[in-house]
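PT: before anyone asks, these are the final sequences, not the draft ones from last week. 659 residues across everything. Please model them as a single complex and drop the result in this thread when it's through.
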Amino acid sequence: MITPGRLFRDIQLGVKNLLLHKLRSFLTMLGLVFGVGSVIAMLAVGEGASEVALEQIRKLGSRNIIVTAQKPAEEQGASNVRSFISIYGLLYQDEQRLQGTIPTVKRIVPVKIIQKEGRLKNRSLEMRVVGTNEHWFGLVQRPLIAGRVLTKLDIDEKSSVAVLTEHGARRLLASEGVIGETLRLGSNYYEVVGIVQSESATEGAMQTPDQMTDAYIPLTAAREHIGDYFTQNKSGSRVRELVELHQLILEVDSEENVEATAGAIERMLATFHKKKDYSINVPLTLLRQAEATKRTFNIVLGAIAGISLLVGGIGIMNIMLASVTERTREIGIRRAIGAKQRQIIAQFLIETVVLSFTGGLFGIGLGLLIPWVIEKIVGMPTIVRMSSLVLSLGISVTVGIVFGIYPAMRAAALDPIEALRHE
Amino acid sequence: MTDRREQSGGADYAVRFENLQKIYKMGNNEVRALDGVSATFEKGSFWAIMGPSGSGKSTMLNLLGCLDRPTAGKYYLDGRDVSKLDDDDLSDIRLKYLGFIFQSFNLIPQLTVEENIALPLYYLGWSASERTSRAQELAALVGLEKRLRHRPTELSGGQQQRVAIARALSNDPVFLLADEPTGNLDSVNSLEIIELLVKLNHEGKTIIMVTHEPHIAAHASKRLYMMDGKIQKVEG
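LR: through. Structure below.
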């Protein structure tokens, strides 16, 4: 009974009827246009924001555990005393203990961070010197641009070599021919052996010591050349600190073991540290929390979307009911001529579906435009997923069917004799 | 769509009523709008149904037009018993075998003359090109071949009624059912329309016309007078 050709003609008829009342059809659609548009836009902004957060966490490594040295709270007040030496942080011993006792820990990267002035030829730059070992580059996954990264041999030999970040290298020497040059850090000289890509500086709660102008040198060399004492000039008073390691990054053999391993590390460090001078961050936990937040966010969005589409649907139903009343006589004529009830239903239902589908398409247009504008003007990252387009168009059409069926059935149920008499 | 012109049920009458009754219940009262009507409308005849308001004329029209079902009795349309059909089947009967002409023309204002004429063919499932050629043929028959692209509102009343007649003829019905076809027209246009109907009747169309105007009814070959739900008399 329903052939494609017939359906096509019915759709043509529907479009024609809608075009007879362009303004009314447009206004009817408007509810769905804004409903669909705002759903897509909200999802895009939400996706964009959470993607940034997730990406930051993912970069930290889902199998990694990051232990960071933290100045204990009670010492912050005491450090105002002149020339007080504040001793805190992770110890070289911690690294060895963790290495030996927790079997799920695959690799450990110790990190020592010192601010030094770097000087190359006649340029100088305040740099963050990161003393670490050869595993750093494996765990942090920074692509090598030129030369080589630190090797085990460098660590063992306490070689005076440094790896720069691309950004730092550019600022020290406006070319990449920096390899082989000699970099002065403080009072020591290092041969530049490699350049790794710098990570664009993003604001995040947690940062690995991987800023734009880092110089990576063997931890062994850092210990020997720079030592563990730091002097900071702080509001007129000098603060001396003794910190052996600023960070330990531990790689666990598998994701399932991450949380148990973090617990083990916590217990172990608690045994040997009298003060709580470290914090343990587990990117995986953060990732899970972020994902859970995202799910909640999506549920809330879904509810808002549902309400706005419901409103759009009620608008459609309202107009279609008015349209049925207005076209009572037409319905009577069609019925008298021999149109069946289901053909009248089809006629009106097709109109609402055409309306809601077109509204959905305009809504998609709006939903693509808004995130684009937000990205251009506010600079917030947005991600429009194909699935959100398909989903919202599908819901829009469903709304059209659901809210169109009642007016259509009202139209079909009209008594042809009464309908023909209608003025 | 094997042979869409095959309309004849094989009977020698277009319509036969056997003791047709239509009773409306109004609370506890029964209104016998049709109270046992028996009649036969032969093929090729031109009937006028007359009577004052309340005589059962409109009820008869609705039953004849398969827009309503009788409470009791039989209605044979060209040999088919249509008295007990459901809404869908009645729609089908109207679509295939009946042609309506209304007092107020009842054209769809949004559609062109051509689309109005071809509207039944749309529901019969004809293709667009078939519909167009049939509409042109019928427009020529009623003298409106130059108005196919116009909207009904751009035409005079007489022209609109011609469009309605062309539409009623589009499915080559068993009979044309005209409800006061000249009721909304001036005398000149009335005459034109009634002459067109007479001409169609001479070409073999069966026509049943409901009217209360004696001078219009005079053009019919037979006249049936209704009174109080019964046939009062038949002339001609």
